[in-house]
């Protein structure tokens, strides 16, 4: 099975300082953030492995990292009837 690693920069999700002890991101919908990424991989016959997703911050910017696996060809099952 073929796979690809990815790191996706989520535009607009940056930590903002609330006070000296706390930084927060704006509210976001995780599924909505992943939608364009899923569409991109589907066009290449890949699917995101949601169990592999990791949310990382780099310089207060959100990145989603993970694994996309190639979709397997559907397996056909044939039946033989003998006479």
Detailed description of the structure:
The protein is α+β, with helices and mostly antiparallel strands and 83 residues long. The chain has one domain (3-70). The chain is 17% helix and 51% strand. It contains one helix and five strands. The chain has one helix at 30-43, and strands at 3-14, 16-19, 22-24, 46-58, 61-70. The strands form two sheets. The protein has a three-stranded antiparallel beta sheet, with helices on one face. The longest helix is centred in the middle third of the chain and has 14 residues, at 30-43. The radius of gyration is 19 Å and the shape is rod-shaped. The two termini are 39 Å apart. The mean pLDDT is 91.
Residue share in helix: 10-25%
Number of strands: 5
Order of helices and strands: EEEHEE
Sheet with most strands:
3 strands, antiparallel
Low-confidence stretches: none
Number of self-contained structural domains: 1
Mean pLDDT: 91
Strand order of the largest sheet: 1-5-4
Total helical elements? 1
Distance between the termini: 39 Å
Strand content: over 45%
> What is the CA-atom radius of gyration, in angstroms?
19 Å
Shape: rod-shaped
Q: Helix/strand/pairing class, anyone?
A: alpha+beta
Describe the secondary-structure layout.
Layout: E1 3-14, E2 16-19, E3 22-24, H1 30-43, E4 46-58, E5 61-70
Features:
83 residues; alpha+beta; 3-stranded antiparallel β-sheet; 1 helix; 17% helix; 51% strand
